[in-house]
Amino acid sequence: MGVGASASASKRAASGVAKMAVSKPAEEQGSSRQASRDVYLGEPVDLRATVFGAGRMGCAMAGQLALKGVAVTIYDHTEFTRSRAIQVTKGMMKELVDSGHLLESAKASAVERIRIAENMEDALREADIVFEAIPEDLNLKIEVFKSLDAAATLSSTVLTTNSISYFVEQIADSSTMQHKLCGVRFLHPVLLIDEVEVCSPKDRETEDRVLEMLKKTGLQPYRYEGTRRVLYQSEVAKAYNAMKAACQQAREAQGAGAERTMERTLSEENEVTD
What we know:
51% of the residues lie in helices and 13% in strands. The protein is an alpha/beta fold. Strands 3-2-1-4-5-6-7-8 form an eight-stranded mixed sheet, sandwiched between helices. The chain starts with 6 loop residues before the first helix and ends with a helix.
């Protein structure tokens, strides 16, 4: 929990975490990864996202979004963290490539979709949605969202928090901000799991917009209904297996495509010779 959080806020947050329950396995709720869209098609998505916070969580979120075809901007207030964000994200993806869960070509395409912003104004320029991924310090989050709200150049930009410890009402400093802010929680391991929890207690319209944005990327957003989604180890293992199988299918498809291209080339050369 953040150092700057008040005692009362800490108690509320602790209470909220304590009430988290393990929801039903993915077998009962639907698969945690659909191989149909996935990260292997390389299709760009008409969505511009900014991840505010370049720690491991922020980099994982940026990597997942980029793999899904989203143009992603990463920003962090410290130069050191900004400078290493791309390398951290690439490192996470490389682990998946080395284990056979991700194609090198998919990794390369995703990295090309990520850029680093040097200031907040640049980070928010033309952003459709902003994902906050900073430490769980309530006072820090409140100040960051005040700055984000003031710096956003598009009135349509949606602001979201990945916080698991605090509710939107605690982070937003006014009723106006509460209508703009939406909770969006990526599940661990982020690069592997497509399910994303969405919660906007004050504005169903904002929540619907976020759900639609995430759905068109191939992610699987769902509304928070009072129970936190906690994954079983069996679900994570199933997601790993599904991702590896999809990667193998994509690799075979690439090989078949290359073979067909070679056959066409040889056929055309033979026709010229004849």
